[in-house]
Structure to design on (258 residues):
Protein backbone atom coordinates (compact mmCIF):
# COMPACT_ATOMS: atom_id res chain seq x y z
CA UNK A 1 0.00 0.00 0.00
CA UNK A 2 1.42 3.38 -0.96
CA UNK A 3 1.26 6.55 1.06
CA UNK A 4 0.08 9.86 -0.32
CA UNK A 5 1.55 13.26 0.39
CA UNK A 6 -0.02 15.03 3.35
CA UNK A 7 0.54 18.65 2.33
CA UNK A 8 -1.91 20.73 0.33
CA UNK A 9 -1.01 20.64 -3.31
CA UNK A 10 1.55 17.88 -2.80
CA UNK A 11 0.10 15.83 -5.65
CA UNK A 12 1.08 18.70 -7.96
CA UNK A 13 4.73 18.33 -7.01
CA UNK A 14 6.83 16.26 -9.39
CA UNK A 15 9.21 15.59 -6.48
CA UNK A 16 9.00 16.39 -2.78
CA UNK A 17 11.72 15.53 -0.27
CA UNK A 18 11.06 15.97 3.44
CA UNK A 19 13.67 15.73 6.20
CA UNK A 20 15.99 13.41 4.27
CA UNK A 21 18.97 12.08 6.21
CA UNK A 22 21.60 9.60 5.03
CA UNK A 23 24.76 8.35 6.71
CA UNK A 24 27.55 6.02 5.70
CA UNK A 25 28.78 4.61 8.98
CA UNK A 26 29.57 7.55 11.23
CA UNK A 27 29.65 10.02 8.34
CA UNK A 28 26.35 11.89 7.95
CA UNK A 29 26.21 12.85 4.27
CA UNK A 30 22.69 14.31 4.09
CA UNK A 31 21.50 16.27 7.12
CA UNK A 32 17.84 17.04 6.71
CA UNK A 33 17.16 17.84 3.05
CA UNK A 34 13.85 19.52 2.16
CA UNK A 35 13.22 20.09 -1.55
CA UNK A 36 10.24 20.43 -3.86
CA UNK A 37 10.14 20.40 -7.67
CA UNK A 38 7.07 21.14 -9.75
CA UNK A 39 6.46 19.62 -13.16
CA UNK A 40 8.74 20.94 -15.94
CA UNK A 41 11.09 22.58 -13.41
CA UNK A 42 14.87 22.24 -13.75
CA UNK A 43 16.73 22.44 -10.44
CA UNK A 44 20.52 22.43 -10.37
CA UNK A 45 22.45 21.28 -7.31
CA UNK A 46 25.81 22.99 -6.88
CA UNK A 47 28.44 22.78 -4.20
CA UNK A 48 31.89 21.43 -3.47
CA UNK A 49 32.74 17.76 -3.95
CA UNK A 50 31.51 15.82 -0.94
CA UNK A 51 28.61 18.17 -0.22
CA UNK A 52 26.03 15.41 -0.83
CA UNK A 53 24.80 16.11 -4.37
CA UNK A 54 25.34 12.64 -5.81
CA UNK A 55 24.06 10.88 -2.70
CA UNK A 56 20.88 12.95 -2.85
CA UNK A 57 20.23 11.84 -6.43
CA UNK A 58 20.91 8.20 -5.57
CA UNK A 59 18.44 8.40 -2.68
CA UNK A 60 15.75 9.85 -4.95
CA UNK A 61 16.20 6.92 -7.34
CA UNK A 62 16.18 4.49 -4.38
CA UNK A 63 19.69 3.31 -5.17
CA UNK A 64 20.60 4.23 -1.58
CA UNK A 65 18.29 3.45 1.35
CA UNK A 66 17.54 6.51 3.45
CA UNK A 67 17.90 6.73 7.21
CA UNK A 68 15.19 9.30 7.88
CA UNK A 69 12.69 11.35 5.92
CA UNK A 70 10.21 10.82 3.10
CA UNK A 71 10.34 11.15 -0.67
CA UNK A 72 7.26 11.70 -2.82
CA UNK A 73 7.02 11.49 -6.60
CA UNK A 74 3.82 13.00 -8.01
CA UNK A 75 2.18 12.64 -4.59
CA UNK A 76 3.13 9.01 -4.00
CA UNK A 77 5.53 8.25 -1.19
CA UNK A 78 8.23 6.13 -2.79
CA UNK A 79 9.95 5.56 0.56
CA UNK A 80 6.86 3.97 2.11
CA UNK A 81 7.25 0.41 3.44
CA UNK A 82 6.53 -2.25 0.84
CA UNK A 83 6.81 0.05 -2.17
CA UNK A 84 7.60 -1.67 -5.49
CA UNK A 85 11.08 -0.26 -6.14
CA UNK A 86 11.24 -1.53 -9.72
CA UNK A 87 7.95 0.18 -10.56
CA UNK A 88 9.19 3.45 -9.09
CA UNK A 89 12.46 3.33 -10.98
CA UNK A 90 10.56 3.12 -14.27
CA UNK A 91 9.36 6.65 -13.58
CA UNK A 92 12.74 8.10 -12.58
CA UNK A 93 15.61 8.12 -15.06
CA UNK A 94 19.16 8.59 -13.84
CA UNK A 95 22.36 9.23 -15.79
CA UNK A 96 25.78 8.95 -14.16
CA UNK A 97 29.08 10.63 -14.94
CA UNK A 98 30.64 7.30 -15.99
CA UNK A 99 28.10 6.50 -18.76
CA UNK A 100 27.52 2.88 -17.53
CA UNK A 101 26.73 1.59 -21.02
CA UNK A 102 26.96 -2.16 -21.51
CA UNK A 103 30.23 -2.59 -23.45
CA UNK A 104 29.22 -5.91 -25.03
CA UNK A 105 26.03 -4.45 -26.52
CA UNK A 106 25.57 -2.16 -29.49
CA UNK A 107 24.23 1.34 -29.01
CA UNK A 108 20.85 0.14 -30.27
CA UNK A 109 20.72 -2.75 -27.80
CA UNK A 110 21.78 -0.48 -24.93
CA UNK A 111 18.86 1.84 -25.68
CA UNK A 112 16.23 -0.86 -26.32
CA UNK A 113 17.05 -3.34 -23.56
CA UNK A 114 14.93 -1.81 -20.78
CA UNK A 115 11.94 -0.85 -22.99
CA UNK A 116 11.77 -4.42 -24.27
CA UNK A 117 12.25 -6.15 -20.91
CA UNK A 118 10.48 -3.74 -18.59
CA UNK A 119 7.91 -1.94 -20.77
CA UNK A 120 7.39 -5.09 -22.90
CA UNK A 121 7.76 -3.24 -26.19
CA UNK A 122 8.18 -5.39 -29.26
CA UNK A 123 11.61 -5.43 -30.85
CA UNK A 124 10.25 -3.49 -33.82
CA UNK A 125 8.63 -0.80 -31.66
CA UNK A 126 11.66 -0.49 -29.36
CA UNK A 127 14.00 -0.20 -32.36
CA UNK A 128 11.79 2.43 -34.01
CA UNK A 129 11.72 4.49 -30.82
CA UNK A 130 15.48 4.14 -30.34
CA UNK A 131 16.28 5.21 -33.90
CA UNK A 132 14.06 8.27 -33.51
CA UNK A 133 15.78 9.25 -30.25
CA UNK A 134 19.22 8.66 -31.72
CA UNK A 135 18.27 10.65 -34.82
CA UNK A 136 17.33 13.60 -32.62
CA UNK A 137 20.85 13.69 -31.17
CA UNK A 138 22.56 12.97 -34.49
CA UNK A 139 23.75 9.47 -33.60
CA UNK A 140 21.39 7.24 -35.57
CA UNK A 141 24.33 6.28 -37.79
CA UNK A 142 26.07 4.87 -34.69
CA UNK A 143 23.23 2.52 -33.72
CA UNK A 144 25.15 -0.65 -34.64
CA UNK A 145 28.43 0.50 -33.10
CA UNK A 146 29.71 -0.63 -29.71
CA UNK A 147 30.33 1.98 -27.00
CA UNK A 148 34.13 1.80 -27.24
CA UNK A 149 33.89 3.08 -30.82
CA UNK A 150 32.23 6.30 -29.63
CA UNK A 151 33.72 9.42 -28.08
CA UNK A 152 32.98 10.20 -24.44
CA UNK A 153 30.48 12.88 -25.45
CA UNK A 154 28.70 10.46 -27.76
CA UNK A 155 28.58 7.79 -25.07
CA UNK A 156 27.09 10.23 -22.58
CA UNK A 157 24.42 11.32 -25.05
CA UNK A 158 23.56 7.65 -25.63
CA UNK A 159 23.31 7.17 -21.86
CA UNK A 160 20.84 10.06 -21.67
CA UNK A 161 18.83 8.66 -24.58
CA UNK A 162 18.77 5.26 -22.86
CA UNK A 163 17.14 6.92 -19.84
CA UNK A 164 14.68 8.81 -22.05
CA UNK A 165 13.61 5.59 -23.79
CA UNK A 166 11.81 4.63 -20.57
CA UNK A 167 9.67 7.82 -20.74
CA UNK A 168 10.56 8.94 -17.20
CA UNK A 169 8.52 11.51 -15.30
CA UNK A 170 11.70 12.78 -13.65
CA UNK A 171 15.28 12.77 -14.95
CA UNK A 172 18.27 12.86 -12.58
CA UNK A 173 21.65 13.87 -14.00
CA UNK A 174 24.73 13.29 -11.86
CA UNK A 175 27.73 15.33 -13.02
CA UNK A 176 27.19 14.10 -16.57
CA UNK A 177 30.07 16.17 -17.99
CA UNK A 178 32.73 15.60 -15.32
CA UNK A 179 34.30 12.58 -17.07
CA UNK A 180 34.50 14.34 -20.44
CA UNK A 181 37.28 16.21 -22.16
CA UNK A 182 36.44 19.94 -22.29
CA UNK A 183 35.74 19.93 -26.02
CA UNK A 184 33.08 17.22 -25.56
CA UNK A 185 31.18 18.98 -22.79
CA UNK A 186 29.25 21.32 -25.08
CA UNK A 187 27.51 18.55 -27.03
CA UNK A 188 26.16 16.94 -23.86
CA UNK A 189 25.05 20.26 -22.36
CA UNK A 190 23.31 21.08 -25.64
CA UNK A 191 21.21 17.92 -25.33
CA UNK A 192 20.31 18.67 -21.71
CA UNK A 193 19.37 22.22 -22.68
CA UNK A 194 17.09 20.84 -25.41
CA UNK A 195 15.39 18.55 -22.87
CA UNK A 196 14.82 21.50 -20.54
CA UNK A 197 13.25 23.53 -23.34
CA UNK A 198 11.05 20.52 -24.09
CA UNK A 199 9.65 20.54 -20.56
CA UNK A 200 11.49 17.60 -18.96
CA UNK A 201 11.50 17.78 -15.16
CA UNK A 202 15.13 17.47 -14.07
CA UNK A 203 17.25 17.49 -10.94
CA UNK A 204 20.87 18.05 -11.97
CA UNK A 205 24.06 17.84 -9.93
CA UNK A 206 26.68 19.88 -11.78
CA UNK A 207 30.02 21.63 -11.54
CA UNK A 208 29.20 23.61 -14.71
CA UNK A 209 28.22 26.91 -13.14
CA UNK A 210 27.58 28.76 -16.39
CA UNK A 211 25.31 25.95 -17.52
CA UNK A 212 23.41 25.98 -14.21
CA UNK A 213 22.99 29.74 -14.49
CA UNK A 214 21.59 29.44 -18.02
CA UNK A 215 19.33 26.39 -17.70
CA UNK A 216 18.02 26.19 -14.13
CA UNK A 217 14.65 27.35 -12.90
CA UNK A 218 16.24 27.26 -9.44
CA UNK A 219 19.70 26.62 -8.01
CA UNK A 220 20.38 24.91 -4.68
CA UNK A 221 23.75 25.30 -2.99
CA UNK A 222 24.63 22.27 -0.88
CA UNK A 223 27.18 22.46 1.89
CA UNK A 224 28.01 19.63 4.32
CA UNK A 225 24.83 17.74 3.52
CA UNK A 226 22.41 20.66 3.80
CA UNK A 227 20.75 22.98 1.30
CA UNK A 228 22.33 26.14 2.62
CA UNK A 229 20.78 28.49 0.06
CA UNK A 230 18.40 28.25 -2.89
CA UNK A 231 16.82 30.64 -5.32
CA UNK A 232 16.66 31.75 -8.96
CA UNK A 233 20.03 31.58 -10.78
CA UNK A 234 20.20 35.37 -10.99
CA UNK A 235 20.00 35.69 -7.22
CA UNK A 236 22.34 32.80 -6.35
CA UNK A 237 25.08 33.76 -8.78
CA UNK A 238 24.87 37.56 -8.54
CA UNK A 239 23.81 38.18 -4.94
CA UNK A 240 24.18 35.09 -2.74
CA UNK A 241 23.08 35.74 0.82
CA UNK A 242 25.17 33.18 2.68
CA UNK A 243 28.87 33.79 3.30
CA UNK A 244 29.66 30.15 2.51
CA UNK A 245 27.94 30.45 -0.88
CA UNK A 246 29.84 33.67 -1.57
CA UNK A 247 33.19 32.00 -0.83
CA UNK A 248 32.36 28.99 -3.00
CA UNK A 249 31.36 31.13 -5.98
CA UNK A 250 34.40 33.37 -5.52
CA UNK A 251 36.65 30.32 -5.89
CA UNK A 252 34.65 29.24 -8.95
CA UNK A 253 35.17 32.64 -10.55
CA UNK A 254 38.88 32.65 -9.70
CA UNK A 255 39.14 29.30 -11.48
CA UNK A 256 37.46 30.82 -14.56
CA UNK A 257 34.42 28.55 -14.36
CA UNK A 258 31.76 31.24 -14.12
Amino acid sequence: MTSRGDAAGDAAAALRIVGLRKSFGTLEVLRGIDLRLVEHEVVCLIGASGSGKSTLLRCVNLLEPIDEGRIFVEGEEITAPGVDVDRIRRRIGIVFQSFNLFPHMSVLDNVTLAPRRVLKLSRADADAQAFELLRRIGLDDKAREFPDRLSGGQQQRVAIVRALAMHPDLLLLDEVTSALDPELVAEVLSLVRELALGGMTMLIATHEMGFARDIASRVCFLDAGRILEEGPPEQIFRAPREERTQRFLQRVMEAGRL
